[in-house]
Amino acid sequence: MSFRPILRKRAALPLALTLFAGTTLLVPKTTLHAEGPSESIYLRKPIYDAPPTKKDPPVPSTTTRSSNPTPTDRLATQIGHARVFLHARTQAAEARVNDFMTRALHLESSFTSTIASLAPPPQANEHLLPGGLYVLVAAMAGSIVARNRNILLRATVPLAVGVGAAWVVLPYSMRNIADLVWGWEEKVPVLAENHLRARGAAIEAWKHAEMSGATLSRWADERVREGRQVVEEWVSKGR
Q1: What is the DSSP code (8-state) at residue 58?
Q2: How would DSSP label each residue in 97-147?
Q3: What confidence tens digit (pLDDT) does each residue in 136-161 have?
Q4: To pair with 36 at 20 to 30 A between CA atoms, which of 45, 115, 155, 201?
Q5: Interval 24-73: pLDDT, tens
Q6: Which of 165, 163, 145 lies closest to 154 in space, CA to CA?
Q7: Assign residue 125 a region: left if phi > 0, alpha if psi is -120 to 50, beta otherwise?
Q8: Any residues with CB less than 8 A from the CB of 132 and at least 6 apart, and which?
Q9: How far apart (Å, rounded) are the C-alpha atoms in residues 124 and 146?
């Protein structure tokens, strides 16, 4: 009875060793992990179409044409030259027409402004219609006076009489005409110098004529006064 616990202990020891050895052989040394679901399960197909990707522009072909152009290429080249030629000629013709029209408009504007500048001012009270008729009649009278003279007088006398009448009847208009003619003469220096000389000579001649007229008038007044005195003395003596 006293040996029964010892026998139980001896019988339990081989049983424990057997269990330990079995667990060592059955349990693997490497750690085993549980296999999870694959990533393809989480990738679902979208319900909308994917946006179109931007494509690169096509690269032009680097192949060169052959050295011998085709008839089509030669025809296209000739047509291009013809178009350039026609375009250049059309532009030149258009430029000439525009230049001509510009000159014509400038000439018309200059002519109208010149005619307007010859008119007398409103406060001058100078009427062109009757004054022009008077000048024409004076020129015709000068032509009648010089009709039996030589050709030089027949050509100059009517003109001189008409110009003189114009200066008397239309002084403002003649002044404007003289200024216009002088502006044209200034463009030719030789003509302007001759005009100044002729004008100076005419002014000097007019001054001499005025002086001579004044002297003649004084002489005539003296003669008339002397004659009156003689007549008065004769009348007084006769009484």
Answers
A1: P
A2: HHHHHHHHHHHHHHHHHHHHHHSPPGGG---HHHHHHHHHHHHHHHHHHTT
A3: 999 999 999 888 888 888 889 999 99
A4: 45
A5: 544 455 554 445 554 444 455 556 566 556 555 555 554 445 568 888 88
A6: 145
A7: left
A8: 170
A9: 34
Closest of 106, 104, 105, 114 to residue 184, by C-alpha: 114
Contacts 24+ apart (CB under 8 A), 224-228: none
Within the chain, residue ranges assigned H as helices are 4-26, 71-118, 128-145, 151-169, 171-186, 189-238
The token pair at 119 is: 């008119």
Rounded Cα gap, residues 23 and 27, in angstroms: 6
Residue identified by tokens 């007398």 is 120
Residue position matching structure tokens 């009448």 = 165
Rounded Cα distance, 205 and 216, in Å:
16
